[in-house]
Amino acid sequence: MYDPLYHQSPGCGQDYPNSYWAQVSGSSPKNLGALQTDLEVDVAIIGAGYTGMSCALHLAEEHGIKATLLEANQSAWGCSGRNAGFILKTSGRKSFSQMANQWGEQAMRATYQEMAEGVERVKGLIARGIDCDMQPAGYLKVAHKPNKLNELRAIAQLQKDMFGYDIDVLSKDDVRQQFMDDRNAHGAIRYTDGFGLNPLKLAWGYQNLATSAGADIYCSTPVLQSRQSSTGFELITPSALVKAKKVVLATNGYTPQGFMPAVNNRYLPVLSQIIVTEPMSEQQLSDSGIKTNQVVMDTRALKYYYRKLPDNRILFGGRGAISGKSAQDPYYANRLLSVLKSSFPALESLNIAYAWSGWICMSLDDIPHIYQNAEQNLFYSMGYCGAGVSFSAQAGKRLADKVAGAQVPNIPLYTSPLPTFPFAPLRRVGQWGYFQYGKIKDKYF
Length: 445
Ligand SMILES: Cc1cc2nc3c(=O)[nH]c(=O)nc-3n(C[C@H](O)[C@H](O)[C@H](O)COP(=O)(O)OP(=O)(O)OC[C@H]3O[C@@H](n4cnc5c(N)ncnc54)[C@H](O)[C@@H]3O)c2cc1C
Description:
CATH superfamily of the largest domain: FAD/NAD(P)-binding domain
Number of helices: 12
Bound molecules: flavin-adenine dinucleotide
CATH topology of the largest domain: FAD/NAD(P)-binding domain
Largest sheet: 8 strands, mixed
Structural class: alpha/beta
């Protein structure tokens, strides 16, 4: 499997992975195919996932600027077509109390506002006619140990006080009787506004909106190399040269090693793994006590998350292999299945129907960065840390604002570059160390 820390290109024209989403979503909207002739454009966007497509859409609709997207494989071939489809009012991994301590209350509140706007933006785009199988709202954050419920209670109180956020606190019995009989759940808090959807259909919906607004999307067109010129950038693709005044890097965790000096050694691609089971029978459904389609995540450092899909399958996710070379090892999918069965012993005979993984993009300081270089001709949005489905819509809009020279909120997300990883060649060793720490923390603390 493509490994961004070792390979220089994500491939060319590769098909979607064999995921549940690729199977149930129908066919992708038309694109212009592989670029065959040289182009001169104002704005080239590299990568056609949520970030790139939201940027193209907002450039066209809010600033009257036409963008040209260059995608190595298929639209939404990266994370955007293979995630779990959880829409949550968050991005990165930094808590709001950490933000308040580091940046002060005003910046923390403005950041919350942007993340909340991300969810509203996704809903607004869906309301324009994207059919993406939205499920009933509700996000359960589950205590994986009894002592974690107190921490969750404190978070709920804090967010209620700070933002007036509507959060229910649920005892172990409440969770089991009202939502799901999860034997690993020791209570939960429930946000009333998170929800699940089909992520690939969402991405294709963005694609339709962006192309209707005038954006051009070329797939099977990897940018193999880029160089700065007197007028901007020259992007070299397999069959054509693209001269662009401005370039937007929307490649996130799929950014190849050494691709652009501006982001070299400033991100860590980490594999996240998903399994989707066979559909549960009526008997299995009733025996498992799963009564909800709401989205669920636990309190572990190495998180597990799950949701019941519209056709009564379970989507279950967690960390994957460390390197692309081991990504397809069935060990990782089977490990998720055994955790699922420890939560729901009644599902002992349930099998995996689909298993796949994708590269999320970690930043050193646990927040996304939407940034531009000093010359104002190179822009990027990276580092959602595995929480980018809703925020990427907002980040794409803010990227578009930056490209057009409009004001954006003055908060660290939009003003600071991705920090460089110290000892960058050893990032994978650091990741392995974090996994060991996480296993001990989750088991004993
Ligand atoms: C298994 C998994 C589950 C997840 N679940 C959730 C979730 O439930 N909720 C949530 O909020 N987030 C989730 N995420 C994260 C979320 O999917 C991402 O944050 C989001 O999709 C990032 O979108 P993007 O457009 O920035 O990048 P991507 O969708 O990754 O797109 C990057 C694109 O760039 C292209 N590219 C790379 N290099 C080049 C090049 N040189 N030339 C041309 N094209 C190039 C790639 O082919 C790729 O299509 C999950 C991620 C994974 C992997």
